[in-house]
Each structure stands twice: as C-alpha cells, then as structure tokens.
Hints:
There is one protein chain. The protein is an alpha+beta fold. Helix content is 22%, strand content 40%. The strands form five sheets. Strands 1, 2, 3, 4, 5, 6, 7 and 8 form an eight-stranded mixed beta sheet that branches. It has a five-stranded mixed beta barrel with strand order 10-17-18-20-24. A four-stranded antiparallel beta sheet has the order 13-12-11-16. The radius of gyration is 24 Å and the shape is globular. The termini are far apart.
Amino acid sequence: MPADSPARELCATALGRAKKHADVSHVEIRWVRERGERLRVRDGAPEGISKNSAAGFSARLIARGAWGFACTQAATDADLARMVDEAVAVARASARLAARPVSFPERRGERGNYSCPVQIDPFGISLEQKLGDLTGPEAELRRGGSPIHSAEAWMHWTEVDKLLLTSEGTDVAQRFVYGGIGMMAIAVGSDGRMQRRSYPGFPGSEGLQGGYEIVALTDLMGAAARVRSEAIDLLSADPCPEGTRDLILGSNQMALQVHESCGHPTELDRALGAEISLAGGSFLQPKDLGKLRYGSDIVTLTADSTEPGGLGTFGWDDEGTPATKAPLVREGIFVDYLSSRETAAALGRESTATVRAESWNRVPMIRMVNVSLEPRSGSLEDLIADTADGILLDVNQSWSIDDLRLNFQFSCELGWEIKRGKRVRLLRDSRYTGITPKFWQSCDAICGAAESRIWGLMLCGKGDPMQTMAVAHAAAPARFRQVEIGHT
C-alpha cells in the first residue's frame, strides 16, 4: 500500500486518538482490504462462479489492563474515532470483570513491507481463460462416461492488503496473493458403491502463495487420465485388510496428519483453556515442555512463517512480531507452542509469531502458520522397497479426532498393499487409527527434501465466532510401524 494512502492517514489519526487516553497502554490499528474469486465447473457446466471484496479498520488495545476491540467499514476520521472510543469502552468494561490484568510484553516497533512473489496476476486473467483451464481437465475426467458418474474442477484466488500501526512504533504493510486449482472424479459401480479421486490432494489442500502460474504448476490436464483411471480401478479393488501393519503415508495425507495431531494441539490458547469452544483443548500441557516424548528421534516439527509459497508465510503476524522458524517438536521431544506475545509470556517464553485475524472485523488469535515435518533422506520408492509387509495410503477422505487431539482415525482415497518391497494390489476404503504420541513414536523413516511438498489448507476453522484461516504444512512421505488399519 502506498505510504501516503488515505487508509494510512486514517490509521495514524486513529492511533493518535487512542494514545491520548491516559489509561490505554497498548494500541494496534489495523486496515485490511481483500478480494476473492471462486470458479467451479461440474459435469460440463459452470457452477458457483462468485466474487467478493471487503475492506475495513479495527482497533485492538489494552486499557486498565484489559483487552478492547472494535471495527468499522466506514472510512472517515469521525468513524475511526468512534471505533477507537468503543474499543476503549469495551476494555474498561472488561477490566471490571478481569481476574488479573493482561501481561503483554512490549517489543521494539517494526517497520517495513512484505509482498509474496507473483508472476501472473490471477485477477488479470479473463473469465473465459479461467473457465477453459477448468473445462478441459473436467471433460477429460468424464471421457468415456460410465462408471464415471460425476466430475468437477475448481479454482480460487485471494488478494489481501494489510497495514498495521501500533503504539510501539510498528508500521508494516503486507500484500498477499494466493490460490489454487483442483479437480475430482466420482465413479459409481454397478453395485452402487462409490469411489472418489481428487487431485492434486484432498479438496481444499491445493492452496499456495503466488499467482496464476500455479495453474501450470498443478497441471490438471496432465493428471486427468490417471485420476480417472484410479477412480475406476478402485471400484474393483479389494477392501483394505483389517489388522496391524507398517504404514506409509504419502505427502498429502501427512499434511493433514500434521495439521490435526501436531498443529492444533500445539496452539497455546487451547492448552491454556482460553480457546476450546471449537474442537476442544490439547493433551500437550505446559508441564510437558522439554519432557514429553511426542515422537521418535527422527521427528522434528517446526512452525515456519518464512517458508516460500506457504499459506502461513508473512513478514509479521498481526501483533507485529516478525516471522520466524521455531521447533515445536525437536528430535521427538515437545519443546514449544504456537503462541502469541501474551500467552508466551504466561510461560516465560517468546512468541512464535502466530497471531492472525481472518479479516478486518475479527479479533486476532493464535493460528497455525506453516507447521511442517522436517525431511530426512531417501525417496518414496526407497521406502517402499524397504518395507516387507505394509500399506501405503494417501489423499484424505475423512477424519475424526477427539477434543484433546489424542485418539484419531483417518480414511484415505488411495491405498496400496506392499509385500516384499513392492506394491502388489490397489486397496479401497482404507483407514488407519492411532493415539498421537504412540503413533509418532513409531515413525522410523521420513523421506528426503526432494519428496517433501507444501500443502495449503484453505479453511482451517477456529474460534467463536468461527474464523477460517489459510494455513500450510510441508511434509514428505513417512513410515510408521505396526499401526492399526482396516476399511470403512
């Protein structure tokens, strides 16, 4: 955003008004402008083409030791003055009920700009070209007709400009462009049984920071024939056997495994009981820091908001804390949380820079950034060759996990039985289940960086009212010993 833009001037005026209140000790003034576009083609016809845009301001501040928040879409000095005064009033009212004053460690103000690399502006591409890039692969999925019952392809694009001014002197402007493209085929057999195949991963995991160059990178047309064939072959595949086997998870499934069993339980507001209304708390408690064996020695999981292309990548979080890379699990030991400045201070630690708000009218909260599994060595084919009796699963179909993130069950679109180092048969309706620490402690192999890929999950939900957030996970295929498997 230009430094002399009207939004910047309005934010500066609002910041000045807030600082005049003698009982205000910290102020953040935020401006967000965003626009988005979604397109979908199903069974040969456009469906669900939509555009959206919004812009607004918010004030988050501490007065008399309590938080206050207010927002407005109006863009005049008078409207922002009312917004600031409302936030102060909310804080003062909250202070009368607060058990203790907010402890919010001050830090040096940050100044700068962040803009993610974009080769081709997706909002400069015509609707005709976008529909053409969807209808081609969607038609290829339906080529030949039955047993393909339905096919669809979609793309979505988002552009966000953010400005943050704070009483600490922070003045940071950030610009994000991200999106993705995917497709799915549904095959139905003569017995009525249905099988689904999605590409490039399970729907909603295809997001990346960047522009329309993501379309060529994903190459739906190049994968359509394989995806159609896999959907049809799954109809006649054997169900995944019941029992205990060595389990290899592909990169896409690993991303959701990390999301549900590491990302959410390491959110410090969940662990402290401050945010449990959606999806519960966490089994990872502060007393476990530096002691609990979360995984085997080869398991290192990081919160990395600097990873290029990730949906959790930025210059600064919504508190003005600079992006960083921090281990959450180091060589199997639980060592840190996804945290804010306030929650980290409660444990005598530094924030891991994970605070973000869905939009201008939402309170910033702890959100996953790029929570990723660090790669080790070798290829997926090496791992298969090294497995005597196992199952390879990839691309999530459904999942369930308890409200402490301990007991989980995932089902996957694709399954392969492995015997004596080779894939011997395709399996359908595959599932696996486990208990988080026991599962990660059984990990004895993680493939190398060449097999790792970052997956962007577009709609991670949290909070009340719920906020969705774009997050990401980089992961390579990995093997887990003696896991309970079966079929749905």
